[in-house]
Design goal:
alpha/beta; 5 helices
Length: 175
């Protein structure tokens, strides 16, 4: 038997998106959501997710593109906003991503998630799939293993080795 998780990304991006995701959770149309903790809407709406913690997988939608960072990010977001995916991808492929800054952003976004939701995320994925980029994925695995050694969140992986068209999720312990 195969389990299928239907995940709605971007909880916290806007109030409308968050309302739609909550409605889908209430109607059991989705089984997971990924949250953007860098947004003010996250702070306003996170408590509404708590009742779904035992019913759905509530996770972190790690953000390094197009939006505001959590706290300062002087190298990657010198003007208070992350660059577009094309810029982050170029830095990733040329191995010029600011590793310490990415590690700090991940820690801050996880802290914000735990502070508002009240528990660690069930899973982690990335806005524009940034969590899978070279120079980012290694940090994600390192931080999750260190921060949650006994029960790390699973990581959504949008890679299909066998041509099945199915997006896999794997445990950080398996990486």
């Amino acid at each position: 038997m195969t389990n299928v998780t239907v995940c709605a990304d971007d909880f916290g991006l806007t109030s409308g998106i968050s309302s739609g995701i909550l409605a889908c959770l209430e109607r059991r149309r989705i089984s997971a959501t990924s949250c953007m903790t860098a947004r003010a809407t996250w702070l306003d709406r996170a408590a509404e997710l708590r009742p779904f913690g035992g019913i759905a997988d509530i996770g972190l939608h790690f953000t390094l593109t197009d939006l505001e960072p959590v706290g300062a990010a002087p190298i990657l977001a010198p003007h208070g906003r992350f660059p577009p995916l094309s810029h982050v991808l170029r830095l990733s492929l040329t191995r010029r991503l600011p590793q310490d800054e990415i590690r700090e952003q991940l820690a801050r976004q996880l802290d914000a998630f735990e502070r508002e939701f009240g528990s660690p995320p069930a899973h982690l994925d990335g806005h524009h799939h940034v969590h899978q980029l070279p120079g980012v994925r290694e940090i994600v695995v390192e931080v999750l293993r260190h921060r949650y050694p006994m029960d790390p969140p699973y990581v959504r992986v949008s890679h299909d080795e066998e041509g099945s068209g199915i997006v896999a999720s794997i445990s950080a312990n398996a990486l």
